[in-house]
Amino acid sequence: MTTTQKVPRRKRKLEKIPSYLVYETLNGKVLPYKGYRDVLDKKKKTAEIMGCSSLQGILVSIIHGFLFMSINRKRYFLATNEIGVHISKNTNLANDIAIFEKEGLTLNNRYFEVAPKVVVEIDIKIDIDPDDHDEKFSYIIEKAQKMLEFGTEKVIWVSTQTKIIFVFSKTETWVMVPFDTNIPVLDDCVLNLAQLMQEEGIEIE
């Protein structure tokens, strides 16, 4: 069973953050994009902070491609591109890759209001001190826990900096594993990120 963990509160200077610079809201906390202060200070344009890194983009692409070929697409939808998930009035989250059951799902021009079965995240997109490892870990735990409470069965979170994958499950012990670990995604689909990267000739410095 999932172990409930106390999540330390993150201290953030109170300031008005324009909605176009907000990546997520989580339990009432406004979480802006990484680099939003540079936009407010007119050092960068909004478009300069919205994109992901080259490594993040390629990893999302190859994982999405693998899942597209591996899951039962008659039963599941595979979504990507910062999928918006509306959980409650105070919580709107974004996912890099999400797998939804097709049955009973209505597609429209709003955020998803049902939980994906599985979520895959690559790194962190919100504004967090890169040297504050406690704050980063707290955010990962808090967001994953919120997704599981909403109904998601598994959250797979890839950290390119540490070369570690966090696996959060509704029914199994939460674990941290290296990239070369076989990770069950759903049904008979098993992800091995190191193997995918090797096939594509990708190395992380």
How do the strands and helices of this protein lay out in sequence?
Blueprint (H helix, E strand, L loop, with lengths): L21 E5 L2 E4 L3 H5 L5 H5 L3 H17 L5 E13 L2 E11 L16 E5 L10 H18 L3 E6 L4 E6 L5 E4 L4 E4 L2 E3 L1 H8 L5
Parallel strand pairs: 5-6
Antiparallel strand pairs: 1-2, 3-4, 4-5, 6-7, 7-8, 9-10
Helix pairs in contact: 3-5
Overall mean pLDDT stands at 91
Largest sheet descriptor: 6 strands, mixed
What's the CATH topology name?
Answer: tt1808, chain A
Helix segment count?
5
Instruction: Supply Rg.
Output: 17 Å
Overview of this structure, please?
It is a single chain. β7 (164-169) and β8 (175-178) form a beta hairpin. The chain has one domain (53-200): tt1808, chain A (Alpha-Beta Complex). Strands 3-4-5-6-7-8 form a 6-stranded mixed β-sheet. The chain is built from 5 helices and 10 strands. Mean pLDDT is 91; it is low at 1-14. It is of the alpha+beta class and 205 residues long. The chain has helices at 36-40, 46-50, 54-70, 133-150, 193-200, and strands at residues 22-26, 29-32, 76-88, 91-101, 118-122, 154-159, 164-169, 175-178, 183-186, 189-191. The N and C termini lie far apart (36 Å). The radius of gyration is 17 Å and the shape is globular.
Entry keywords:
single chain, 205 residues, alpha+beta, tt1808, chain A, six-stranded mixed sheet, two-stranded antiparallel ribbon, 5 helices, 10 strands, 26% helix, 30% strand, globular, disordered N terminus
What is shown here, in short?
This protein is an alpha+beta fold and 205 residues long.
